[in-house]
Amino acid sequence: MIYYADLLVNGLALGCLYAMASVGLTLIYGLLRILHIAHAGVFTLGAMIGISLTNLTSSLVIGFTGAICLSMIAGCLMYRIFYERILREPPHVAVLISIGLLIVMEDSFRIIFGEEGITLHNNPFYLKTVDVAGIQLNVVFLALAAIAVITLTGLAYFVNGTRVGIAWRATVSKPLIATSFGVDVIKVRYLAFGIGSMLAAIAGVMVAVMNNLVEPSFGSVVSYKSLAIIVLGGLGNMNGALLASLCLGLAESFGTAFFDSYLDRNAIAALVLIVVLMARPSGFGRGTA
Amino acid sequence: MTLKSFFASAICFISLLSSASADILIGLQTPLTGPAATLGKSAKGAAEIAVDRINASGGLLGQKLVLQIYDDQIQGAQAISIANQVTSDRKLTAMIASSYSEPTRAAATIYQSAKMLYLAATASHPDITKAGNFVFRGSHLGESQGEQAAAYMKKQGYKKLSIVKVDNDFGASVINGLKDRAKQIDLGIASEYAFSMSDRQFGTLVANIKRDAPDVVYICAFEFNGGPLVAQLRAGGFTGPLVACQSMGNQVFLQITGPASEGIAVIDTRAPDYPNPAFQDFFKELKARGAEASPDGASSTYAFFEILADAIKRTGSTDPERLRDAVAATKELPTIRGVLHGFTAGREVLQEYPVLKAQNGKFAHVESLEP
Amino acid sequence: MNAYVLGLLTLNSIMIIFALSLNVITGYCGQVSLGHAAFYGIGAYTSAMMAVAGVPFLATIPAAMVLSAIFGYFVGLTSLRVRHDFLAITTMACGFLFLGVVRKSTFLGGELGISSVPPSGLGSLGDTLLAVGSALVVIILSLYIQKNWTGLAFRAVESDEDAARTVAVNPPSYKLLAFCLGTALAGLAGALYVNYARFIVPDTFSFGTSIAVLAMITIGGIGSTFGVCAGAILLTLFPEVFRFLGNYRLLTYGSLLILVMMFIPKGLAGVPAILYRRSSSP
User: Fold this and answer.
1) CB–CB of A211 and B231 under 8 A?
2) How far is B262 from chain A, CA to nearest CA, in Å?
3) What is the ipTM of this complex?
4) What is the reported pLDDT for C241?
5) Looking at the domain C3-280, which fold is it?
6) Residue among B228, B284, B296 at smallest CA distance from B256
7) What burial class does residue A139 get, using C-beta atoms within 10 Å of its C-beta: 0-12 exposed, 13-18 middle, 19+ buried?
8) pLDDT, tens digit, for every residue of C252-281?
């Protein structure tokens, strides 16, 4: 019984990890319909900066702050330099630019930080666990899960329940009308990239602390799964994204336990995506954001 | 003397002259750039040390040794391209490959059909040496590493074992060898698990192993996934002994796992304190050149230079067929990796398997298993 | 003719066929596919396994094409349910599913792949002629489709599916046709690749390969046969030509993708139009 509880908890925690890494992507896709694959690069950037700063200053707080600020700037810059001008082009253009960006970022990390990656010199949270009813839970994993749930439900409330949030959604469906109502479309976009990147950076630093390792291809673990989550969650729907992340995490956790002699982890996620989409082409969400 | 035989002897004489004054060119195919550049850097360092030392002691057959390095970026298509180029030019005496399995295997076919000596220093895919009799391997076949691991674990008195492997050709071959030998020597296998190269979260795996409660866990992975796995196993409450394959016996693994590495045994890799003075001397020189990140790849590359040098001295020529036969006939040659007993009929190396243990954040040599 | 040049000709021909095959699906018919490497892989594995079992190479080619087309049909069915971004992600998932199944299947060689594929018996010059000849046939086929009714129907589906219906062009059948045709040609490329490398592993057909072939057609110019050929040759020769870049090779590749998409979104095929406009404007 403990075994199944173990799998359940791990699946949920994994789902929260995916959720944190994908929130930004969901926000951006919801607002701009851009498949911002380079988001995985921001995730890694946050982790790299966070660990380097922490190693330099021996303070995790400085590491976190630096990672968040620099990632936000990076995210906004990405929008301004790369995406703004191609918003009217066919979708494959944005996808390829994003992939190109991810390749450039990953290779830059490899050149700057070395391909072995970097580790934390002094990691106070490493291997620390709490015992909950016989299951060992990693402290950082728990914190990550908590932050993920809070952030996502908070954002969902914001986007659905507040005036500002509704204004945001208006800029997606009808940018011209939104502008005539006084919504600054450009500011909304920068906010989306900024907040999304910040959340990715937080997730990145926490995962790095948890594993005690950041490598250049760190982001690839989540990047393509994030795409699956946007799609399953249904076009930028925040609640849908959380639900989709949890389902994906659970599917992987139980799937690898029982099917790992037939399919690897990525294939299980892929199968879930295909099956769900064929059954419900608009994903879990109730239509548009 | 007929015109034909005059020309024939003239050509022989001229080629004799040119070979007497020409250098001996040895090629190194390795990933200098791209994701496996660490291996490339170490292999290059080792090759340069070897060439410098050989030339310092007079070269081979009175000629200078010259190194030609080719960057395959661990891509099969690149390796094929390099092989086509090199076998067309025919300037190299031999090519040493310190790279991954795909580029090595893809190129091996071409070197074999061109009858050029191809020495695979690091790749583990079983079919590499099956390409033909001009292909030799200097590192241990995955299967044989697995067999030795089984023998080692049986010797320690373990009865029930859980296997965890990474999903790639190396993991597959090591575990195949391990399972075959385990069956023969009556070592019980409680369970077997696999994970993909990019996995870093092993919640399910840790849960499975805790439930199975084996006497020992054998892990075949690399430092960047095996490291987190070992850390999570320990954090998850598994306290049993761990044994790992050669690719986890390095500095980065120790950095990632920290105190979680204590007591893990690693089979078939050399610690910096490996009890061979020539190795220690080589390792010091490697460190000085900043190329010590892949010590196994480096020492295997260097050893092939030792083997080639020995073979060239024995035959007194660089003729491909005679050189090939000389390499195949190598017997009890001292190298920095210990004594090379020789090559098997399948051109696999017969050499000891050193065992390390992690103690206080460092790897220490424990013993050596003979084949 | 030396082996190096022959090898390059063969590889470039294979990549041209591979790129043109995706062009039919994504370029002509507008269905974005991020998992095209899987069909390249299905063709390759089919040919490799049959060749290892003793079937003569030339006979494996039709089998490879048919099998790829069959799977292509099923993946094509997904394009009837989802479009654009969602289709891109679904096809990407299909690619990962293919990889996952192959990696775990001992029948398909698993992680060790399939090696020791016997030579075709045509000799190295023969192999190259076969590859180059096949590429020429595919180029002519591609031009033909572009010009004839099928090509028109594809373009109708790509621009506006509902409008297409009103002129008796049934989008589902044409989408499926595009997928079957495109994937069959990818299977051809896969079989030829097996004959070239005589060794395949799952990694050869990774997501990176799907991206690379998409990059070939977008850099070359989606929809344009000659543009796509140029894109394929450029990206295939890239490692050779840019060998001097050494450690910065991947960086350059990524930057190239970004710069071309940002400044010449229509690809190389769009350059003449841009130049013409520049030169003719006052």
Assistant:
1) yes
2) 14
3) 0.83
4) 76
5) ABC transporter involved in vitamin B12 uptake, BtuC (1.10.3470)
6) B228
7) middle
8) 888 988 998 888 877 887 777 777 777 766
